[in-house]
Each structure stands twice: as structure tokens, then as C-alpha cells.
Amino acid sequence: MAKFTKKKDGDLPAVSTASLPDIVFMLLFFFMTVTTMKDSSLMVENTLPNASEVKKLEKKDRVLYIYVGKPTRDYQKVFGTEPKIQLNDKFANVSDVGDFILEERAKKPQELQNVLTTALKVDKDANMGLISDIKQELRKVNALKVNYTTYEGDAFRNIQ
Amino acid sequence: MSRRGGPPEVNAGSMADIAFLLLIFFLVTTTIETDAGLDRMLPPMEPPDENVVIKQKNIFTVNINKSGQLLVEEELTNLKDLRKKAVAFLDNGGDGTCNYCKGRRDESSSDNPTKAIISLKNDRETKYGTYITVQNELVGAYNELRNREAQRLFGRDFTDMEAEYLNPETPSSIRDDLKDKVQRIQDLFPQKLSEAETSTSN
Questions:
Q1: Transmembrane stretches, by residue range (chain A) (predicted)?
Q2: What is the residue extent of each domain of chain A?
Q3: Contact residues, A window 9-68, toward B, CB-based 8 Å cutoff
């Protein structure tokens, strides 16, 4: 009988927090899995223009990215301040764009090769001349679907 | 301080703190970004076989010069008026074959939305931001008209239907239904936006 009289104080037992870590870990794993670390660091200034009539770019695996803009401050000494093209992790010339597209296209699975979109992430201060040259290169390799990536917003803010 | 109840329990209270720390780190670094932008199709490299003759009145010319000024149909135009002008041009229905057009039916403007072509030309020194604004306004003009027709026929906006159609999470039964509707609206106002090679002159 002595065993059952052990409860001396009538205090409320503390709420067990043992399951709290589990809950938090669950959240943690969620965010760990959805986090995508950027695979290429930007070497160009990339303030995208605004547009209101945008369409979402679904399915990341079907998109190739081309960045255009002024080199960032660290690279300005070497590459100057004229807008440059960045493909993956290095600066490139207009003539490299076609090869890049073909190379990236070959890496994709067969069934996706015909539905690829090229996303042009261009700084709003870049000149159209360079963009036209890129478009010309894209036409040469038959990469006709392009998406001018923009922020969602009022388009008239671009011209101020 | 007796150890009568077996080994003492490890205090797991700080585990939550550690996990929270990690959680907050990932919360802050996560950017769930979905890129959005203006979709465009570039013209194929090989020119069309036969030379198609297009009447001048069916072409709506937009020129952008290097300082960002607009010349629309040989007239200096403010960017804010571009959408209105484009809508008026597309919706004109000059030859009376377009029964859903609500335009002025001006003889000297476009015959039919299916024949109307917008031609965009820009200088090599045009700023990209200006170019996007112009593109945005032209796409906006098409969307405005398509929304109007979609509202009339199906009671909802075209942009809304198209977004649902393109969304991969939409069930395929709804997608098949939407496909026909989207196609029908697109046929009423086909997007014919031609971009000439950029001019190198001033």
C-alpha cells in the first residue's frame, strides 16, 4: 500500500514539451525541402522591369535562364560597365548564346526538349540592341518560346 | 539526490530551441519564387514561302526611338494612350465581317481582328524597361478585348481562365473544358504582334 501514497504534493504536473521538438522538426524539414539554393550567383545587376499582364512561369525544369545587365561592382573593373550576358556562372558573348541553349537543351530529358522556355532576366536599363542580338541567336537555334521575366507591378514605373 | 528512480531523464527542453533556431534560419533564407513575365513567341528563322500582301490599314505601327518616345501610326503618342489606341485599332471591324466588334467601323482602320497586325519596331538604344512597358500595354490591349468576349460568352475573365488552364494543378477534366474556351477566345482576337529587326540608324 505504501507504494500508492507516494504523491505528496498536489501540484499540477508540468505539460510535457517533449513533442515540441517533433513539431518544430516537421516544420524544419518542410522548409528544408522547399528551399532552393540559387545555383548560379548573379554577377550582373538585375533589376527587372515591372509589368501587369504577366503569366506565371510554371515548371522550373522547362526553363533556361539568361541574365543580362551591368556587371556588379566587383566585376566592373575587369568587365567594364556595359551590360553583359551571364550564362550559368560566367560572362558570355552574344555568339555563345546559341551554343548555350543547345547544350542545355541536350541535358534535358527527351520529352522536354521541345517545350523549353527561355527566360530572359534583363535589367531594365539594358539597351534593346543587345536583347535583339540575343533574340536573333535564339531564333537561329529554334528556341522560339521566350519569357521576358518581370516583377508584377505597374508598367509605367519603368520609364521614370 | 538519490537515484532511486533509475537513470535521470535527459532534459529535452533545449531541443526545441535548437530546432527553432534552424527553422528560423530556413524560414529567412527560403524564397519560394515563382517567376512571372510576358510570354512571347519569336518568329521562326525561315521566311514564309509566299509573299503575303497585307493592306496598310491592317497594320498598326509602333515605333520606339532611343529616348523612349513613341510613334504610333505616324503620330507622336504618350505611352499612357497606347493601350486605348491599340484597342480601338483591333476592335475596329472596318469591313463589317466582325459581328462581335464594338469599334467605330472606320473604313481606314483594320478590317477584322483576325487580320489586324501590330508591328513593333525599336531602336538599338531603346531602354529595355521602355520596351517592356510597350509590350505590356499591347498585351494588355489584347487581354482587355479577350476579357470582354470571355465575359460575354462564358461569364468570366479570359486571363483568369488561361491562368487556370496553364496551372499544372488543375484537374485534366477541367483543363480539357477550358482548352476549347481559351482557344475560342484566342481565335476571336488572335495575337499578331510582329517585331521587325531593330533599326541601327538614329
A1: 12-32
A2: 61-152
A3: 17-18, 20-21, 24-25, 27-28, 31-32, 34-36, 49-59, 63
Q: What pairing do the DSSP bridges indicate for beta strands B59-64 and B117-122?
A: parallel
Q: ipTM score of the complex?
A: 0.73
Give me the mean pLDDT over the B14-33 stretch. 77
Residues B74, B77, B79: CA angle, nearest 5 degrees: 135
| B128 closest CA partner among A28, A126, A138, A135 | A126
Over residues B75-116, the pLDDT tens digits come to: 888 888 888 888 888 888 777 777 788 877 777 788 888 888
* Listed residue (B139, B74, B13) closest to A148, CA to CA: B139
Task: Give the CB-side neighbour count of residue A85, counting CA atoms within 13 A.
Answer: 22
Place of cell 515548371: A59
Sign of CA dihedral B129, B132, B137, B138: positive
pLDDT of residue A7: 56
Q: What is A61-152's CATH number, 3.30.1340.30, 3.30.70.1560, 3.90.1200.10, 3.30.420.270?
A: 3.30.420.270
* Residue B192, all three cell numbers: 499578331
Q: What is the pLDDT of residues B111-163, one digit of tens each?
A: 888 888 888 888 888 888 888 888 888 888 888 888 988 888 888 888 888 88
* B193/A16 Cα distance (integer angstroms): 66
Where residue B3 falls among pLDDT bands split at 50, 70, 90?
A: low
Contacting residues of B for A119, CB less than 8 Å apart: 35, 37
Residues B137 and A158: their CA atoms lie apart, in Å, by 12
